[in-house]
Amino acid sequence: MIDFHSHIIYGIDDGAKDIDMSLSMIENAKEEGTEYICATPHFILGNYEVSLEEYSSKIEELRAKSEINIVSGLEVYMDLKLPQLFKEKKIWGINNGPYMLIEFPMRDIPRYSNDVLYELSILGIKPIIAHPERNLKLMNNIDILEDWIEEGYLLQVNAGSLVGQYGKEPKDISEILAKRNMIHILGSDGHNDSRRKTNIKSGRDKLEEINPSLSTWIDNNQKKVLLGEYIELPEINELKKSSKSIFGFFKRK
Ligand SMILES: [Fe+2]
Protein backbone atom coordinates (compact mmCIF):
# COMPACT_ATOMS: atom_id res chain seq x y z
CA MET A 1 0.00 0.00 0.00
CA ILE A 2 1.19 3.52 -0.76
CA ASP A 3 0.28 6.51 1.38
CA PHE A 4 0.65 9.53 -0.90
CA HIS A 5 -0.05 12.22 1.66
CA SER A 6 1.31 12.66 5.17
CA HIS A 7 2.80 15.20 7.51
CA ILE A 8 5.33 12.91 9.18
CA ILE A 9 8.33 15.22 9.08
CA TYR A 10 8.60 17.01 12.41
CA GLY A 11 8.93 20.72 12.95
CA ILE A 12 8.00 21.88 9.46
CA ASP A 13 4.26 22.47 9.49
CA ASP A 14 1.25 21.56 11.64
CA GLY A 15 2.20 17.87 11.43
CA ALA A 16 4.59 15.93 13.66
CA LYS A 17 5.83 18.04 16.56
CA ASP A 18 9.10 16.23 17.20
CA ILE A 19 11.09 13.25 16.02
CA ASP A 20 9.40 10.90 18.46
CA MET A 21 6.03 11.75 16.96
CA SER A 22 7.45 11.32 13.44
CA LEU A 23 8.67 7.85 14.34
CA SER A 24 5.43 6.88 16.04
CA MET A 25 3.49 7.97 12.92
CA ILE A 26 5.84 5.91 10.75
CA GLU A 27 5.41 2.91 13.06
CA ASN A 28 1.64 3.28 12.78
CA ALA A 29 1.94 3.39 8.98
CA LYS A 30 3.93 0.17 9.07
CA GLU A 31 1.21 -1.49 11.17
CA GLU A 32 -1.36 -0.31 8.62
CA GLY A 33 0.50 -2.22 5.91
CA THR A 34 1.93 0.88 4.24
CA GLU A 35 5.07 0.10 2.25
CA TYR A 36 5.74 3.59 0.92
CA ILE A 37 4.77 6.81 2.65
CA CYS A 38 5.12 10.18 0.98
CA ALA A 39 6.28 12.89 3.36
CA THR A 40 4.29 15.86 2.09
CA PRO A 41 4.44 18.83 4.47
CA HIS A 42 2.42 21.93 3.64
CA PHE A 43 4.16 24.49 1.47
CA ILE A 44 2.08 27.63 1.93
CA LEU A 45 3.68 30.83 0.70
CA GLY A 46 4.03 33.24 3.63
CA ASN A 47 3.22 30.53 6.21
CA TYR A 48 5.13 27.31 5.71
CA GLU A 49 8.10 27.53 3.38
CA VAL A 50 10.43 24.66 4.12
CA SER A 51 13.81 24.86 2.40
CA LEU A 52 15.13 21.93 0.39
CA GLU A 53 18.11 21.74 2.77
CA GLU A 54 15.99 21.38 5.92
CA TYR A 55 13.60 18.99 4.18
CA SER A 56 16.40 16.79 2.88
CA SER A 57 18.26 16.55 6.16
CA LYS A 58 15.09 15.66 8.09
CA ILE A 59 13.86 13.07 5.59
CA GLU A 60 17.29 11.41 5.66
CA GLU A 61 17.23 11.37 9.45
CA LEU A 62 13.82 9.62 9.42
CA ARG A 63 14.82 7.22 6.65
CA ALA A 64 17.78 6.07 8.71
CA LYS A 65 15.44 5.16 11.58
CA SER A 66 12.53 3.66 9.62
CA GLU A 67 11.64 0.28 8.24
CA ILE A 68 9.32 1.56 5.52
CA ASN A 69 10.17 3.62 2.48
CA ILE A 70 9.81 7.36 2.91
CA VAL A 71 9.28 9.19 -0.36
CA SER A 72 9.84 12.92 -0.81
CA GLY A 73 7.11 15.38 -1.73
CA LEU A 74 5.18 18.45 -0.66
CA GLU A 75 1.54 19.49 -0.32
CA VAL A 76 1.72 22.74 -2.24
CA TYR A 77 -0.96 25.37 -1.58
CA MET A 78 -2.47 26.96 -4.66
CA ASP A 79 -0.80 30.29 -5.42
CA LEU A 80 -0.21 32.41 -8.49
CA LYS A 81 3.51 32.08 -7.92
CA LEU A 82 3.69 28.26 -8.10
CA PRO A 83 5.16 28.09 -11.63
CA GLN A 84 7.87 30.57 -10.63
CA LEU A 85 8.60 28.67 -7.40
CA PHE A 86 8.94 25.45 -9.37
CA LYS A 87 11.35 27.07 -11.81
CA GLU A 88 13.41 28.27 -8.84
CA LYS A 89 13.39 24.71 -7.43
CA LYS A 90 11.70 25.90 -4.23
CA ILE A 91 8.90 23.34 -4.59
CA TRP A 92 9.12 19.75 -5.78
CA GLY A 93 6.95 16.81 -6.75
CA ILE A 94 6.46 13.29 -5.41
CA ASN A 95 9.82 11.49 -5.42
CA ASN A 96 11.20 14.61 -7.15
CA GLY A 97 9.27 13.55 -10.23
CA PRO A 98 6.49 15.17 -12.26
CA TYR A 99 3.52 14.41 -9.98
CA MET A 100 2.85 17.26 -7.55
CA LEU A 101 0.28 17.28 -4.74
CA ILE A 102 -1.64 20.55 -4.82
CA GLU A 103 -3.96 21.79 -2.10
CA PHE A 104 -6.73 24.37 -2.37
CA PRO A 105 -8.30 26.61 0.26
CA MET A 106 -10.98 24.68 2.19
CA ARG A 107 -13.84 26.85 0.97
CA ASP A 108 -12.86 28.12 -2.43
CA ILE A 109 -11.09 27.60 -5.71
CA PRO A 110 -9.21 30.80 -6.60
CA ARG A 111 -10.21 32.03 -10.05
CA TYR A 112 -6.62 31.81 -11.34
CA SER A 113 -6.36 28.08 -10.44
CA ASN A 114 -6.92 26.72 -13.94
CA ASP A 115 -4.25 29.04 -15.35
CA VAL A 116 -1.74 28.00 -12.67
CA LEU A 117 -2.48 24.29 -13.18
CA TYR A 118 -2.08 24.72 -16.93
CA GLU A 119 1.18 26.64 -16.55
CA LEU A 120 2.52 23.93 -14.26
CA SER A 121 1.56 21.31 -16.86
CA ILE A 122 3.55 23.21 -19.48
CA LEU A 123 6.54 22.95 -17.12
CA GLY A 124 6.12 19.17 -17.05
CA ILE A 125 4.17 18.87 -13.82
CA LYS A 126 1.26 16.48 -13.44
CA PRO A 127 -0.98 18.00 -10.78
CA ILE A 128 -2.58 15.79 -8.14
CA ILE A 129 -5.50 17.51 -6.43
CA ALA A 130 -5.27 16.89 -2.67
CA HIS A 131 -8.47 15.73 -0.93
CA PRO A 132 -11.07 17.44 -3.20
CA GLU A 133 -13.80 15.80 -1.09
CA ARG A 134 -12.92 18.22 1.71
CA ASN A 135 -13.16 21.40 -0.37
CA LEU A 136 -16.56 23.08 -0.07
CA LYS A 137 -16.56 24.45 -3.60
CA LEU A 138 -15.46 21.19 -5.20
CA MET A 139 -17.84 19.01 -3.22
CA ASN A 140 -20.67 21.07 -4.62
CA ASN A 141 -19.30 21.21 -8.16
CA ILE A 142 -18.00 17.80 -9.10
CA ASP A 143 -18.05 18.91 -12.74
CA ILE A 144 -14.88 20.96 -12.01
CA LEU A 145 -13.20 17.70 -11.01
CA GLU A 146 -14.42 16.01 -14.18
CA ASP A 147 -12.82 18.79 -16.23
CA TRP A 148 -9.55 18.45 -14.33
CA ILE A 149 -9.47 14.69 -14.88
CA GLU A 150 -10.05 15.37 -18.59
CA GLU A 151 -6.94 17.57 -18.43
CA GLY A 152 -5.04 14.60 -17.00
CA TYR A 153 -4.90 15.80 -13.40
CA LEU A 154 -5.18 13.14 -10.68
CA LEU A 155 -7.39 13.17 -7.61
CA GLN A 156 -6.07 12.11 -4.18
CA VAL A 157 -8.76 11.27 -1.64
CA ASN A 158 -8.09 10.91 2.08
CA ALA A 159 -8.63 7.33 3.22
CA GLY A 160 -10.33 8.72 6.34
CA SER A 161 -12.97 10.49 4.25
CA LEU A 162 -14.28 7.14 3.00
CA VAL A 163 -14.90 5.96 6.56
CA GLY A 164 -16.42 9.18 7.85
CA GLN A 165 -13.44 10.64 9.70
CA TYR A 166 -14.28 14.16 8.46
CA GLY A 167 -18.05 13.91 8.74
CA LYS A 168 -20.97 13.12 6.47
CA GLU A 169 -20.40 15.34 3.45
CA PRO A 170 -16.77 14.35 2.73
CA LYS A 171 -17.83 10.72 3.24
CA ASP A 172 -20.74 11.01 0.80
CA ILE A 173 -18.63 12.85 -1.78
CA SER A 174 -15.75 10.39 -1.52
CA GLU A 175 -18.22 7.54 -2.05
CA ILE A 176 -19.54 9.23 -5.17
CA LEU A 177 -15.98 9.79 -6.40
CA ALA A 178 -15.21 6.13 -5.71
CA LYS A 179 -18.28 4.92 -7.61
CA ARG A 180 -17.45 7.18 -10.54
CA ASN A 181 -13.78 6.06 -10.86
CA MET A 182 -12.70 9.54 -9.77
CA ILE A 183 -10.14 8.48 -7.14
CA HIS A 184 -6.63 7.81 -8.41
CA ILE A 185 -4.55 7.61 -5.26
CA LEU A 186 -5.16 7.52 -1.52
CA GLY A 187 -3.44 9.26 1.35
CA SER A 188 -3.76 9.22 5.11
CA ASP A 189 -3.12 12.96 5.46
CA GLY A 190 -1.81 11.94 8.88
CA HIS A 191 -0.82 14.93 11.01
CA ASN A 192 -0.01 13.32 14.38
CA ASP A 193 -0.17 10.12 16.42
CA SER A 194 -3.51 10.73 18.11
CA ARG A 195 -6.45 12.39 16.38
CA ARG A 196 -5.19 12.38 12.80
CA LYS A 197 -3.05 9.31 12.44
CA THR A 198 -1.35 7.78 9.39
CA ASN A 199 -4.26 5.36 8.96
CA ILE A 200 -5.12 4.18 5.50
CA LYS A 201 -6.23 0.54 5.68
CA SER A 202 -9.90 0.92 6.60
CA GLY A 203 -10.39 3.58 3.89
CA ARG A 204 -8.66 1.38 1.35
CA ASP A 205 -10.87 -1.56 2.32
CA LYS A 206 -13.93 0.66 2.01
CA LEU A 207 -12.87 1.71 -1.47
CA GLU A 208 -12.49 -1.91 -2.46
CA GLU A 209 -15.99 -2.62 -1.16
CA ILE A 210 -17.49 0.32 -3.08
CA ASN A 211 -15.66 -0.19 -6.37
CA PRO A 212 -13.48 -3.33 -6.62
CA SER A 213 -12.33 -2.61 -10.18
CA LEU A 214 -11.13 0.89 -9.23
CA SER A 215 -9.31 -0.61 -6.28
CA THR A 216 -7.53 -3.02 -8.64
CA TRP A 217 -6.72 -0.14 -10.98
CA ILE A 218 -5.11 1.74 -8.08
CA ASP A 219 -3.11 -1.36 -7.10
CA ASN A 220 -1.83 -1.62 -10.67
CA ASN A 221 -1.06 2.05 -11.23
CA GLN A 222 -0.08 3.79 -8.00
CA LYS A 223 3.55 2.72 -8.19
CA LYS A 224 3.83 4.47 -11.55
CA VAL A 225 3.06 7.75 -9.80
CA LEU A 226 6.02 7.18 -7.49
CA LEU A 227 8.18 6.39 -10.50
CA GLY A 228 6.95 9.43 -12.42
CA GLU A 229 5.55 7.31 -15.24
CA TYR A 230 2.59 8.17 -17.45
CA ILE A 231 -0.70 6.56 -16.49
CA GLU A 232 -3.93 6.36 -18.37
CA LEU A 233 -6.73 7.38 -16.03
CA PRO A 234 -9.85 5.19 -15.75
CA GLU A 235 -12.92 6.41 -17.55
CA ILE A 236 -15.33 8.41 -15.42
CA ASN A 237 -18.52 6.48 -14.66
CA GLU A 238 -21.82 8.23 -15.01
CA LEU A 239 -24.02 8.07 -11.95
CA LYS A 240 -27.21 6.05 -11.88
CA LYS A 241 -30.34 8.05 -11.21
CA SER A 242 -30.60 7.27 -7.51
CA SER A 243 -27.02 8.40 -6.86
CA LYS A 244 -27.56 11.52 -8.90
CA SER A 245 -30.26 12.68 -6.54
CA ILE A 246 -27.84 12.40 -3.63
CA PHE A 247 -25.43 14.50 -5.61
CA GLY A 248 -28.18 17.00 -6.38
CA PHE A 249 -28.70 17.48 -2.68
CA PHE A 250 -25.18 18.86 -2.38
CA LYS A 251 -25.34 20.94 -5.49
CA ARG A 252 -26.30 24.39 -4.30
CA LYS A 253 -24.90 26.81 -6.84
FE1 LIG B 1 -2.25 17.43 4.19
From TrEMBL:
It is an enzyme of class 3 (hydrolase). Its EC number is 3.1.3.48. InterPro entries: Caps_polysacc_synth_CpsB/CapC, Pol/histidinol_Pase-like. SUPFAM superfamilies: PHP domain-like (SSF89550). It catalyses: O-phospho-L-tyrosyl-[protein] + H2O = L-tyrosyl-[protein] + phosphate. The keyword Hydrolase applies. GO terms for molecular function: manganese ion binding; protein tyrosine phosphatase activity. It comes from the Bacteria. Keywords: Hydrolase, Protein phosphatase. Belongs to the metallo-dependent hydrolases superfamily. CpsB/CapC family. This is protein-tyrosine-phosphatase. It comes from Clostridium paridis. The lineage of its organism: Bacteria, Bacillati, Bacillota, Clostridia, Eubacteriales.
